[in-house]
Amino acid sequence: MARVARVTPLLTAAAVFLAIVAVPTPQPAGVFWDDGVYLASARALAEGAGYRFAHLPDAPAAIHFPPLWPALLSVVWRVFPAFPDNVAWLSLINPVLMATAAGLACAFGVRRLGLPSLLAAPVAVLFSLTLPVIVLTTVLFAEPLALVLAIAALWAVERAADRGAPGVPATPGSAARVAAGLGAVVFAGVAIGLEMLTRSTMLVLVPAAVFALVLARQVRAAVIVGVIGLGFAIAWQAWQATHAAELAAPLQGNYGGYLSWYLTAVGERGSAFVAEVARQNVVALERTLAVVFFPGGLRPVRPLLVVLLAVVFAVGCWRCWGRSRALVAFLGLYLVLVLAWPYAPDRFVWGVWPLIGIVFACGVFAIFEVSRDTAQPRGARVAAATLLVVATGAAVGLGSYSARGVGRGWVDIAQRRNAERLAPTVAWVLANTPANAVVATDGEPLVYLYTGRRVVPVHILSPVEYVSRPRLDEVEADLMALITAGQATHLVLSGGSPELRAARRLEASGRSHRLSPLGTLPGGGAAWRIGSP
User: Fold this and answer.
1) Nearest CA to 108 among 267, 326, 269?
2) Residue 349 above 60 pLDDT?
């Protein structure tokens, strides 16, 4: 059995890697805004320009995304510098990372949480190969790297809590144990710190780790982990603050730091804004979970089934509590952050989905034990059996949903639609603008990557728009501000751009800038030359 426990995580990782690389995703890189920005800043690093938004005019410092993921991409870019030929190599990084995360999740479930290998392995595979997780993995997003670091950090925190971390009085023969604990503490702090340089939302790892160590009476270890983890976060925030002035004010909404962006909206709108964001996120998350777990009908009872799955998850958290308080605290704080953040919550959930799956497995295992325990009241055993039926049905549904999605080509459907929408824009810019043009356009990172033109966005992202759609006059004002800030020479909008109507009104009014039409694009897009006000 010990050999099985050692081999199972490796088999889990291998299965996940082979399954992901077998999925064809021939779409161009950068069709999602995030991956395009990651690639642009990775290219700047690889070419020795520093961590900068190479695609924006004057290449300001890249203060939006933490730098570790672009730095990793830049290493591969240096080895294979020819774009877009290097995309094939870049695209291998995330499958390796997700496979690693799946193997670590399986091992964590077996060795830390006490799950049977025959339960932990298939759950780790199933949740790592859930369709939206495959999408995240096949796009150049930072989530797989963040997940690997999160599991490593959680494991190190628990080892520190167990192994006589600093603060435990030394006794004869305990020196090696204390040294091992100190190593685990430092490793945990560094892993959390690197997480701060990967995904800003992972900041919740710091209080989760400190909380778990304090409960384990490892106060000095908690201080060390907190100082190291927060040290990385503070260094990143300081670097952002130092370079924030390089970014023009209208570009701050899209390319500035997250913290001020969110706090400004909360300060203007108050607690009602946070409450409305949370309400919308709860509704969106319930609908998403209902679809992926119960895709085969049952619409009238889906909300109830999702609630029952939440009960299974809560039981899993209860079972995990005595074995990994850091994990439970992390997922709890992470969920609070996700619900309060003005963005689609499923993107954040998929980023930790294999960990969530392991907690579900713990819940299923605990409920199974209750259902078999004849000493339990009959009502408790019936309730446990009911939850097992729901959980089994959800697992089957999740697997069938993902298998059907892969078979029907849903993995890259969003990429394909974005690529189809933006391809005419890229072609027009490449054929009709000089090399020194500055193009205001939607999908601006993609246009930069495939044309080399400097670009500016045409929309200022605001947290408030998550709960209320901006008015047309606000869209016009944003467009004018961005054209001015970027000193754009051309405006090129795809057929799917919400700014088309605003641009045509600006053309007709002649306000602020003179927009001279240059023609239409396939798919309904349009292009203008931008003259002086």
Assistant:
1) 326
2) yes
85 SS3 class: coil
Report field, pTM of the whole predicted structure over 0.85: yes
Q: Which residues contact 175 (CB under 8 A, 6 or more apart)?
A: none
Please provide the average confidence, as pLDDT, over all residues in the chain: 91
Residue 461 near residue 444, CB atoms below 8 Å: no
The percent of residues above 90 in pLDDT, for the chain, comes to 79
Gap between the Cα atoms of 121 and 358, Å rounded: 9
Q: Give percent helix, percent strand, percent coil of the chain, each to the nearest 5.
A: 70, 5, 25
Distances (CA, A) of 114 to 118, 306, 322, 399: 12, 26, 11, 24
Span 66-91, average pLDDT? 96
Beta strands 490-493; 514-520: pairing state: unpaired
**What is the distance, to the nearest Å, from the Cα of residue 430 to the centroid of all Cα atoms in its chain?**
32
For the chain, give every domain's residue range. 2-267, 268-407, 414-531
> In this structure, what is the dihedral angle of CA atoms 230, 235, 236, 242, given to the nearest 10 degrees?
140
Please report, as a single letter, which amino acid is at residue 188: A
Which carries the bigger pLDDT value, residue 307 or residue 531? 307
| Strand, helix or coil for residue 406 | helix
Q: What DSSP character marks residue 203?
A: G
